[in-house]
Amino acid sequence: MDVRTVINIIMDLLSQYWHQIVFFLGAIIVAVRLESEVKSLRKDLDNLTKEINRRDTYVETVKQRSEIDVLVKQVSSLWEFANKLRDKFQNGK
After folding, report:
1. Which of 64, 84, 66, 88 is nearest to 76 (CA)?
2. Is the pLDDT of residue 69 over 90?
3. What is the pLDDT of residue 93?
4. CA 49 – CA 56 distance, rounded (Å)
5. How does DSSP classify residue 1?
6. 63 Cβ neighbours under 8 A, 6+ residues apart
7. Is 86 helix (H, G, I), strand (E, B) or coil?
8. What is the C-alpha separation between 84 and 33, in angstroms, rounded?
9. Is residue 58 within 8 Å of 51, Cβ to Cβ?
10. pLDDT tens column, 17-66
11. What's the pLDDT tens digit per position in 3-22?
């Protein structure tokens, strides 16, 4: 077989199956682009998940801070009440 025969065979194959070749090349290109988009979207989703977790942590911190403030006020009120009772008993004797 010489080079011309090989080239003729290749040209015949290309002319007969060009639409399948184009289809497979297109499918490969689409698959690569989709994979790239999926990776990009996964990265964005991970960033959003981290942001949501950070905000949830902030909200929990604010809620706990308000609960602590309420408890501190209640403890202060109890100590004031205990001190008033102590003063009443000491002054009454």
Report:
1. 84
2. yes
3. 59
4. 10
5. -
6. none
7. helix
8. 76
9. no
10. 999 999 999 999 999 999 999 999 999 999 999 988 888 888 888 889 99
11. 999 999 989 988 999 999 99
Q: What backbone torsions phi and psi does residue 2 show, to the nearest 5 degrees?
A: -100, 180
CA distances in angstroms from 90 to 15, 63, 82, 86, listed in the order given: 112, 41, 12, 6
H-type helices in 1-93, by residue range?
3-92
What the block records as the tokens of 62 is 């604010």
Angle of CA points 20, 22, 24, to nearest 5°: 70
Distances (CA, A) of 44 to 9, 50, 55, 57: 49, 10, 16, 20
* Length reported for the chain: 93
pLDDT of residue 91: 81
Tokens of 67: 């609960």
